[in-house]
Specification:
The protein contains 10 helices and 13 strands. It has helices at residues 95-112, 123-129, 131-140, 163-171, 182-187, 223-233, 250-255, 273-282, 297-308, 322-337; strands spanning 15-16, 29-36, 48-53, 59-61, 64-65, 153-157, 174-179, 192-195, 208-214, 234-245, 269-270, 286-290, 344-350.
Length: 357
């Protein structure tokens, strides 16, 4: 590991070697980038090497900070808000606004089993006609299953500011959270939120019907061990939902080591579809589904562009140049036809149930 010219070295006794892939344990690899630094939050010393596994295609840091020392890399880290807004339940003032709300509520009733009023039964058809909005809404709601009697308990691991907990609770779920940031966890009054992280969560076996991780798994030293813990926490037939940057994305191909998905050294493992399937299978899951997605390239391209311009991509965004806007629109068209090129992997995997025995 090279020295960062400003921040210096990561302490040598707080670095660990990574001799094989954390996902498939393959030893063959190629180095993608050498000397990647913390160019996003500017608080983690050192420069880091990122390698690509020759077997499963995952990318991983090696060497990397130890689990005991990685907290140093989060000194200026934001508590993520990628789960989206809480549901807007205020009554719109205009007639058009009320009609839109009724259509949306009709969709929520049929798709999620929510009990929002007023609801228009043609909302489902309206959402089918505006596919991009439907896909965005389903992504924000993390593809929650339709509510079923006795199966309505969800756990969000890395719940951040609690936006998804609020959305799930409004739909009708019993929403729980786990958050490593003690101050963020303390702010989430009204929800059952534990301060902690994977792979050790002090909750009973088979406690939840649905578990979500939005841009969390790439931060973990041992993603497979984390998935095994999630498998333990799920009821038979329960599902886990994961969103994570896609190392095979067109954005990564365009921006290289300044792609927003890299974020060394906080992102320890980056997945492609093959690697995430392997991780799920190793943890005992089955029937992995990759979810359809709305247009995303503009967000990832924009954040990467502003990072390259020396701006904070989370707080200093501006209008993108025309050429990049055109490129991002073209990337979304390509990713729509070839899903493995999407900026983000969003996958749902199922724990075997009694019917599978």
């Amino acid at each position: 590991m090279k020295q960062d010219p400003v921040l210096g070295h990561w302490p040598a006794d707080e670095i660990e070697a990574v001799p094989c892939c954390p996902i498939c344990k393959g030893a063959a690899r190629a180095t993608l980038y050498e000397g990647v630094e913390d160019s996003v939050f500017h608080c983690a010393p050192g420069r880091w090497d990122l390698h690509a596994c020759a077997d499963c295609g995952a990318a991983y840091l090696g060497p990397r900070p130890t689990p005991a020392s990685i907290g140093r890399a989060y000194a200026s880290y934001y508590t993520h808000t990628g789960s989206g807004r809480s549901l807007d339940t205020a009554t719109p003032g205009s007639a058009l606004g009320r009609l839109r709300r009724a259509f949306r509520n009709g969709y929520f009733q049929r798709r999620y089993g929510a009990r929002f009023e007023p609801a228009n039964r043609f909302g489902w058809l309206a959402m089918q006609a505006t596919r991009g909005k439907k896909l965005q809404l389903d992504r924000e709601n993390r593809h929650l299953p339709r509510l079923q009697p006795g199966r309505a308990k969800v756990l969000d691991i890395g719940c951040g500011d609690g936006a998804f907990l609020r959305r799930a609770a409004q739909i009708g779920w019993d929403a729980w959270g786990v958050e490593p940031d003690a101050s963020a966890a303390a702010r989430l009054g009204g929800f059952n939120v534990l301060q902690g992280s994977l792979p050790d969560i002090p909750l009973p076996d088979a406690s939840f019907d649905y578990i979500t991780l939005s841009h969390v798994i790439e931060h973990l030293h041992d993603p497979v061990a984390a998935l095994k813990e999630i498998h333990r926490l799920l009821k038979p037939g329960g599902e886990v939902w994961i969103a994570t940057p896609n190392i095979e994305s067109l954005g990564h191909r365009l921006f290289g080591e300044i792609w927003i998905g890299i974020q060394s050294p906080t992102h320890l493992v980056l997945f492609n579809r093959k690697a995430i399937r392997h991780a799920f299978a190793s943890a005992g899951f089955q029937t992995v589904r990759f979810m359809p997605m709305h247009a995303q390239a503009k967000i990832f391209f924009g954040m990467s562009y502003w990072l390259n311009e020396g701006r904070n991509p989370f707080t200093e965004r501006q209008r993108l140049p025309l050429g990049l806007r055109v490129a991002s629109a073209a990337a979304d068209v390509v990713a729509g036809m070839i899903p493995r090129f999407r900026e983000e992997i969003v996958a749902v995997a199922r724990k075997p149930g009694e019917a599978d025995a």
